[in-house]
Specification:
alpha/beta
């Protein structure tokens, strides 16, 4: 029994384009670039600045504790010093429903919201941020409920009656409506303008930023805090930031129509059946636990995480089993990234580049490295960077094409550096910030080194491609179990080649108490 359903990539692209009225004639005639924004901030030219990073935060209170709110309070002393916050996705669990924005986003981050003193009065589609919050969508922000769950909800029957479980899965009565809740919460939702005159007036008021690609949206903290698109870029302090929607280029490549491919398909089907059985066993066990007992409440919280983790693996398997020659990839977005990176390298005022999106190409969290989506994202990003490298050539000297990549999806904090991968993603720093509220995960037993095998089905020689310098995730057992939830403060230093000081902020739930601390910073 599936708990979530993931819309097809073609549907995600089409729906999101409709919501921002992608390339509408009224927009085109004004020469507006819907992939750029300008921050209305007098400090945009300062070579030294700081910003915050969170990811995978979107759960409400856990049993007896609220890690998301604790992480928000960790960031509060840094709020005035940091110019903006990046969010690496999965803003709302489990299915991105608008019903859960109040509990899972507005209340925890009330200190960052205008009129946050009364968070209950803030509508999820009317949020205004004191300082910019600049997210990318995660997979859960696109998820919907399977049909049977929707029918149950329409019949006003609580979801947990359908399940032999006491798990609070944060699903509400519906899902994200194919990302609609995320779009209404964060994007400039132009679909609502029915008359061309109304749209024209809105564009003339808010799309007053100027870039070398045309007019663009002006993001005004405290007044108008909307994003132009699901992927976008902006410049701050001479650093180009590129925000991507990896949910539309993470489809696995088709399984080969060979004997080996058929055998691998059978393995996937068997593995899926085993995982479904494990999921049902966890849910049956949870029915015997008492949420009012502190120790059993923590077991319920752990079970919640395990069920979600299993469901995630099942979704990945389903994507592989459904892949065929018609697999859709968001070519337009990838081409946009390629040409914008080339343009960035050819712009004298730009001294660095940061890319952030949800699915990490490099990660040592327990389940992610072997997932087909990880391989798909890594291969497609490599293809983009290889294309950029061919054009930029020796102009970059010994510098990597990108100074820093930020991701979420893996429920941990991790710093990875690629070695010589044989591609243009070599010698890049990758920081995963996905432990800001949802159930944390452990590091895989294989450890800090990442090896690749080529191709996926017929395994050949392994090659060491990356090494993890830091992993902060769930560890320990029983009463000694530690849950270190985290976020980041990143300080950007001046210089023609910028340096980044990454400061991990940690709120650790240990022996039913919070222990907050700042870990040793590391320099990139």
């Amino acid at each position: 029994m599936k708990l979530v359903s993931d819309p097809a990539i073609a549907d995600k692209i089409r729906k999101m384009n409709q919501r921002v009225r992608w390339q509408d004639p009224v927009i085109l005639e004004r020469g507006i670039d819907q992939t750029q924004l300008v921050l209305d901030d007098e400090g945009t030219d300062s070579p030294e600045f700081s910003f915050l990073v969170v990811g995978d935060s979107g759960s409400g209170a856990h049993r007896g504790h609220n890690p998301q709110r604790q992480v928000a309070e960790l960031m509060q002393p840094h709020h005035q010093e940091c110019r903006f916050m990046l969010h690496t996705g999965d803003i709302i669990y489990l299915v991105g429903s608008s019903e859960y924005y109040q509990e899972n986003f507005i209340k925890p981050y009330r200190d960052f919201l205008l009129e946050g003193e009364q968070p209950q009065r803030i509508a999820y589609d009317r949020m205004i941020f004191k300082r910019p919050i600049l997210p990318v969508p995660g997979n859960h922000d696109y998820y919907d409920l399977p049909l049977i769950f929707g029918l149950v909800s329409l019949a006003t029957m609580p979801l947990r009656r359908l399940l032999p479980s006491k798990l609070d899965l944060d699903v509400g009565a519906h899902g994200s409506w194919q990302g609609d809740a995320y779009a209404k919460a964060f994007l400039d939702y132009l679909k609502g303008f029915m008359l061309p005159g109304d749209l024209a007036r809105h564009l003339d008021e808010h799309y007053t930023g100027k870039t070398n690609t045309g007019r663009c949206l002006r993001y005004k903290p405290g007044r108008f805090t909307r994003l132009p698109n699901r992927y976008y870029s902006f410049r701050y302090g001479g650093i180009d930031f590129f925000a991507l929607d990896s949910n539309t280029f993470n489809a696995p490549v088709p399984l080969p129509a060979t004997q080996e491919g058929d055998a691998y398909r059978q393995q996937l089907q068997k593995r899926r059946s085993e995982l479904e059985q494990q999921k049902m066993e966890f849910m049956e066990t949870s029915a015997k636990l008492n949420p009012d007992n502190p120790s059993e409440a923590e077991q319920l919280d752990d079970t919640h995480g395990r069920v979600s983790q299993i469901e995630e693996i099942i979704v990945d398997i389903d994507k592989q089993l459904a892949s065929d020659e018609k697999t859709v990839t968001d070519i337009d977005q990838l081409e946009w990234l390629k040409y914008r990176l080339i343009e960035s390298w050819n712009t004298a005022d730009v001294r660095g580049r940061i890319v952030y999106f949800h699915h990490p190409p490099y990660v040592t969290e327990a389940t992610k490295w072997e997932q087909a989506q990880t391989l798909a994202v890594r291969d497609r990003l490599r293809s983009v960077l290889n294309g950029v490298a061919e054009v930029v050539g020796s102009n970059r000297g010994s510098r990597p094409l990108v100074d820093l990549v930020l991701n979420g999806h893996a429920h941990c904090l991790e710093h990875i550096e690629t070695l010589n991968t044989g591609s243009a993603d070599s010698h890049i720093h990758w920081v995963v910030c996905g432990g800001s509220g949802y159930s944390l995960r452990r590091q895989r037993t294989e450890g800090a080194n990442l090896f690749e095998t080529f191709p996926q089905v017929a395994k050949q020689n392994q090659k060491l491609v990356a090494h993890s310098h830091l992993f902060v995730g769930r560890n320990g057992q029983g009463f000694q179990k530690r849950r270190p939830y985290s976020c980041l403060r990143i300080d950007v230093k001046e210089g023609s080649t910028p340096k980044f000081i990454v400061r991990p902020l940690v709120a650790e739930w240990y022996q039913r108490q919070w222990h907050n601390y700042e870990m040793q910073s590391f320099r990139i």
